[in-house]
Amino acid sequence: MVRRLVGYLAVVALTVYLYFMYNETVISGLLVFLLLYLPVSAVYLMAVRRKVTADMGRVPAMGEKGKQIRAGLTLKNQLRFMPIRCEIRVTLRNRYDKRGTATRFTGVVPAAGEETLWCFFQAGECGNINVCLERMRICDLLGIFYVERKEKKLASVRVMPDFEPMPVEISRRTREFQSDAEIYAQDRGGDDPSELYQVREYRAQDLLKDIHWKLSAKEETLMVRERGFPLGCAVLIWFDVREGKTTGTGFSAMIDKAASLSVTLVAEKCVHMAAWYEEDNERIRTCRVWDEKSAYDMIWELLELKPCRDLEKREACRKDTFRGLEFCSIVTIDGIGRIWKDGEIPELLRL
To answer: What's this model's pTM, rounded to 2 decimal places?
Structure first.
């Protein structure tokens, strides 16, 4: 603004010089226009500085890694008789990185109308991308002078990973691991007497106590009750994200690994649980994953994870939450995307 005012005064000074050097009507009219322009512009800007509002309702809630995201910021003009020229400053910033990319957009909002300014950016990493409207400039009719006001409006875009499978070796012990659950397998039987999987003909290895005597008498052949297989969580995926040890790139790598591991376990029909610490609520957040939809939902919630500051309180909550629960395997993914099992980083994850 200072540069524009200095430039304006320089033009006025030059016009005054030409006015005294040449007695021309055109120069006189130009001088009058320049002398009146500044006060008229100031009155106009003070009158319209609050007449434009911004809405970030067209910023999408979700994006995909590696694809372009189109975010719209809608400006609304409350004046019914005059368009308003505006300039906005938008900053794109990963939640885990302090630095961001600032871009300016200009547009003319019609009288009693609205104008949407579109921002295009590439989602190179997973995580939360904050689209922040920091400042708005209301310009005069010629766009020379302006008034600036702070906005500080924020919208968040959750950038999802690709969900590509990864090499994992799953043992028979993990595949056949049973624990208490309210959901039972529909394609195999188990050892839970509280749930009936199917009734079938007797086989040599079946136990006598499983024979359905009434149905056997009706069918005139031995029939056996086959018990249900509870789909308990065989694997626990624990996320160890600590403050000061997580960057935007590291968090993106963690989300990628979590998505890949989860969809791989789903493909292998291995029910698992994802868990992390929510410091704001002082609790352990758990997500049970058994199909692709639940894996997608888990990643969606995981994108809101914040780094932990109080490790002692986190460990106390963790012990209390998992007291009495058993898992066949426990996998830890840290804040930079490394996978740990039994205190080591394996070349090939074996569960």
So the answer is: 0.74
HSE toward the beta carbon, residue 276, CA cutoff 13 A = 23
Q: Which residues contact residue 35 at a Cβ distance below 8 angstroms, ignoring those fewer than 6 apart? A: 12
> 308, 351, 300: which is closest to 327 by C-alpha?
351
- Nearest alpha carbon to residue 107 among 129, 130, 84, 128: 84
Structure confidence by residue, pLDDT tens digits, 158-191: 999 988 899 988 888 877 676 554 454 444 444 4
- Supply φ then ψ for residue 198, to 5 degrees: -165, 165
Output the six-digit token pair for 96.
């885990």
Three-state SS at 324: coil
Per residue in 167-200, is it b (16+ CB within 10 Å) or e — as a string?
ebebeeebeebbeebeebbeeebbebeebebeee
- Cβ atoms of 139 and 149 closer than 8 Å: no
Q: Are 308 and 278 in contact (CB under 8 A)?
A: no
